[in-house]
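Quick one - first record:
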Amino acid sequence: MMMSTGQNHSQDPARPDMAADTTARRNAAAETDTPACVEFANVSFSRGNTVILDNLTFDLKKGERLGLIGDIGAGKTTLLHIIVGLIKPTSGVIRVLGAPRTIEADFRAVRKRVGLVFQNADDQLFCPTVLEDVAFGPLNLGFSPGEAKSRAAATLARVGMAGFEDRVTYRLSGGEKRLIALATVLAMEPDILLLDEPFNGLDTQAAARVLNLLHTLSQSMMIVSHDQTRLPAVATRQLRLENGRVCQ
């Protein structure tokens, strides 16, 4: 269900149903026996002589929606890339979905179950049409072309983009591209979603559509965002990164 476009949700993003959903998730994640699906233990990463992450320790609980905030260059995007193995940490232990992850084979398995939505949707969309872009992930998972297209069409309907199957991707608006980029990941049915600035550059209507969609999803999430109007409405907990470390 999409938000009404006649309301200014940037001023009041936390509708009662959204607030109840976020509160329920927050309470569930607070249970001491809730398992962690991502764990960092003393993880560090340096680029040249610059320390990006410094003995970082934190976890993401199953069902939690964790907001990551911090200044530009604080290491938020780097952290997401480390989770899926696009960057290797300098030191430390990473566990994803209950298993330690150290070598490329480990992270290939992770990337089948953890979906990363890039900050720039154009980095995620490279096929001629929308349907081809969304079907690309399921094809890589081994689905037949027919199954992949069927799954892609169902996912587009889920994100409110039915009818866009034959549209040329690069001609879409920023908000439409953002939803399609999210659909490319959701079509693979991941257990965890990593979202890098999902509201960045969107107008009020498009941001409201993304916010509402996130509330309909059951996956555990890590959400990097500078948007302190919308992030608190969807995140069950927030962590601030400063100087490569967590400041709660």
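second record:
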Amino acid sequence: YYSVTVTNALSCSTTDSVLVSFDVTPDLSVTELVSPQSDCLSDSLYYIDVEITNTGGLDIAASRTIVVSYKIDNGTAITENHVLSAPLFAGNTMVHRFADRIPLASAKTYQFKTYLSYAGDVTQSNDTLDAAVTITSPGFAFSSDTLKTNSYPVVLDPGSWSSYLWHNGSTNRTFSVTSDGWYKVTVTDIGGCEATDSVYLMLNVGIDGTIKGQNFTISYYPNPVRDQLTIEIDAYRPINLEIELLNTQGQKVLNKLIKNAEQMIEKLYVGNYAKGVYYIRFIAGNEMFVRKVVIQ
């Protein structure tokens, strides 16, 4: 009760009283999913941090227990008790960190539902918070781990991205390959997320006997060969053709340069080489072809 006495100018007074009571109940709300936030796809493990605000007019005393839970994509609820180590005053916030970290191992949008329960909290409309966390990754990969080509150069193009970093430091979109080997690139999308892939390029060697270049055709026979390998050149315009014979260790055992070749036949004597498998390499300008040859 609160009472007051009033007195007028004639010294007349009167007294009255009033009963004032407060109907205050606690009100806690989930106000933010602090962690995780949208991110790039990685092997990281994420803490689950939930911000809770005392939105009521009543201070919450230390040692009181708040039950905090979350679900991902409407899955199994994870629930923990948060015991206040200090008072949570009206208007103040606190963060509950769940004990276990979690992976977000797929590039997708995860739907988080976080909620709390507290004894005496009758305003339940603010006890739940829904949040979306998007994990992104550039959808990039070479078409295969190994690519075979009939000739070099080969231009690798990973597609349209914000930036590129090749194995040798190049930041160009494309990379011109001129020899067998591994080639790796990291691409970055507009959100700053990266993806890396590598590919092995190799010449497609065989014993088909015919090679078709951009402006020429080369035929070689017989294969297997005993003494003399015949090479026919049919070029639409003169070409400089280099012919190399390599053993299985990659050592060059024969080398011949033919200048301004158009329509001609060249014969290579191979009868003095040891029997076995060899590789014949034809180089014309920026084109290179490798084929298998067997000497009997």
